[in-house]
Amino acid sequence: MNTVKKRHMVPYLFILPAFIIHACIVTGPALSTLVMSLFDWNGMGNAKFIGFKNFSEIFKDPLVKLSVVHNIQWLLIFITVPLILGFIVAIIVSQLRRSQMFFRTIYFIPYVISAAVAGKIWTAYMNPYYGFNQVFAKAGWTELSKVLWLGNPKIALFAVAFVDNWHWWGFIMVLFLGALQQVDPTLYEAARVDGANRFQELIHVSIPGIKQTIAFVLIMTIMWSFLTFDYVYIMTNGGPANATEIMSTYIYKNAFVKYRAGYANALCVIQSGICVILYFLQKYISKKGGMEDE
Amino acid sequence: MKNMKKFLALCLTGAMAVSMAACGSSGDDKAAGEDDKQTESTAKTDDDKDAKDSKDKEKLVISCYLADDNQVAVREKYIDEPLKEAFPDVDIEIKMYSDRQSLQVEVAGGGGPDILDLDGPTDVAEFAKADRVLDLGKYADQYGWKDMFYDWAYNSCFYNEKLYSLPTFFEGMVMYYNMDVMKENGWEVPKTQDELVELMKKIQEKGIIPIAFGNSNYQGAVDWLYSTFTSCYGGPKAVKAAMEGTGKYTDEPIKESIQTMVDWWQEGWLGDKASQSITNEDMVAFFAEGRAAMMIDGTWASNQLIATYPDCNWDSEMMPQKEDIGEILPFATGGGYSINANSKNPDLAAEVLNYLFTSLDRHYQSINEAGYQPYPLKEFDIAKLEGMDEKLLDQYKLLMDAQKNNQIGYCSWTFYPSEMRVYMNENTDALFLGSLTVDDYLAQAQTYIDTAIADNTIPVLP
User: What is the third-level CATH fold of B172-332+406-455?
Assistant: First the structure.
C-alpha cells in the first residue's frame, strides 16, 4: 500500500469505533424493527411471518389516525408557541447586560427538571380538588375552578402540551440567545447609521443573522413532536378516552400492554417514515425560504 | 507524528474490538453482565458472610415487584428467611423488578428468574402463548396441587388446557364504607341496589362524593368497576354464560349492568364525574378523609387503609344486592407463580413453590403480622387468624363465606380473555365520557370472547 492510500485510511480508522457502536446499537436494532414489523409477535415467543398485514391493519386502525392527528396538533403547538415565546424573550434578555445570566438561568431551569418529576408536580397542580382550581375557586372564578384540566377530553392534550411547553421554551430561548450573541454587532451599527429602528433591526439583521438556528430549531421541533412520549405518558397515559393518545404512547401500549410487539414495530416504522418525510419537507421549505443554504 | 497517528488509531480500534468482545460474551458471563446492568435493586437472602458458600450452591431466582424498605423487611422475614432455612443448600435470590416490562424483556431474551411472580392468569396467558413458562401438570401430579387449591382458583390458572401458574393469593371487590361519615349523617349501610341509589342521592345532596373512584394514574382501574357491576348487577350466571358461549356479553343483564355503571358515573355518584383527573391514591385519601362516603375497591385496599389511615373508621361489605341476583363478591386470583421455561432448575423451582404453599404456619404468621393476602387453599383455616386486626379478619371471613356459599363473581384480570380486558380497560372511560355507546362497547368485547372460544383459550369460570 502506498503512502497516499495509507494516509487516506487513517481518518477511517479513527471513525471506525464510533461507526461500530452506531451499527450495533442504532442501525442493527433499527433494521430489526423493520424486519419484525412483518411478523406477528407478542414480544416474547416465536414470531410468525405475516407479510404486510400489520401495515394494512395500521391503515384501518382508528386509534392510529387519532394518534397522528394528536401528534399534528402537538406539532402545531410546538412549532409556534415555544418558538415565538423563546424568540421574543431571547431578544429582550439579549438587551440586558448585568442580569442576563440571572434570567437565562431562571428560564432554563424547567428544562433541567426531569419529565417524571415535572409531570407529577403539574398533575397535582391540575388536580381539581387540591390544585389550581382551589385557588381559582377562592378568587371567585367559579367556572374556571370547575375545569378538569386533565379529565376533559377536549382540553387534556392542550393541558399536557402546556406543561411540556413550560419545560421546553427556556431551552429554545437559550438557543436563540446564543445565536443572537453571534450576530456581528457592526451589522446593527450599520443599520442604525442607515436609520433603521428597533423593529427594522430585528427583521433585517437579527432574524437573518440567526436563520440557521431557526431552521435547526424548526427541524428538531418537528421531529420531536412526533417522537414525544414522556409528559403524555406521565400525566394522562393517553387518556381520558384516548384524548391524548399519540403515536409513541400507542406504540408503547401495543408493545407492553397488549403484547403486540410486531404491530408496535410496524407503528415504529410508520412513525419514522413520517419523521423522515417531515424532515425533508422542512429542509425543502427552509431552503426555498432562504433559511438554509442551497 | 505520522507513526504516532497510526499507533493511536490502532490502539483505539483494538480497544473497541476488546470492549465489543466483552459485551458479546455468552453463557454465564452474559447472565452476569445482565445482572450488573439491572437497575432494579436486588435483595439476596444470603448474608455477605455466606457469599463464598453460595458460589458452590445451586442458584434459584424468584422475581417480585419493587417494594419499599418496610415491605422488603417484611418479605425477608416471611419469605426470604424461611426459604433459606428450608433450602440450606440452595442460593435463593429474590429479585425485584420495577415494572412488568423489564421482566418481560429479560424473559424474552432467554434469561430471567426461575420463578416468575406474574400478575395473574391473563398475564400468565401471554407468557404461555410465547412458551416462556412451563406446563406445571407434571409437578401438579407430583405434589397433589389440584387437591390443595380451591377449584375456582386452580382452574383459573389453566391456559389452553394446561396449568401454567399457581395462584399466589385471592382477592375480591367489595364496597367500603366510611362509618364516621355514615354515622354523622345517620345513614345506614344499604342492603339492596335500590337502597344504595337512595343513599347516593342523599350523600350527593350533602356535598359529599357518594363513591370515590379515580384512575388517572392507572386507566385500567376501571376493571374494578365493570367487573363489579357485571357480576353484581348483571349476575355471575350471565357472565359465565357469555364466557362459555351459551350466552352473549351483549345480553340484556350485562348490558343493563354496564348501563347502570355509566349512569351512576354520569350522575356524579361514581367518582364525582372527575375520575379521570384523580389518582387511585387520591381516591383512597378522599374516602379515608370523609370527602367520599363509600369506595368500590379490592380487598387489597384494606392494608393501605390500615397502614396509611389508621384513624379511618371503615367497614367493608359485599355490594348491595340486586334482588333477583343476591349478594355477589367478584373474585380474582391476584397473582400467579410460574416457572420460567429457561430455568435450569425447574424441579427445584417446583419444590420451592410447593414449600411456599405448604408451609402454612409461615403463611398464617405473614397474614396475621404483616397483612399478607391468603392463598386460595382448601386447608386454609380462618380460625388461625383470630387475634389479628378485626377489620381485616372480617374481610377474610367475608371472602371465605362468599367462597363457601358460591357467591362468586368474576374479576376481569382472572376470568376474562386478556385482549377483551385490555379493550375494556382502554374504553370504559369513553363510555363514561359519552364518546362510545354501550352497545358498541359490548359488541366489541364479544368479538374477543368469540375469538378466545374459537382458539380454545377462554378462561375457565367456576
Answer: D-Maltodextrin-Binding Protein; domain 2 (3.40.190)
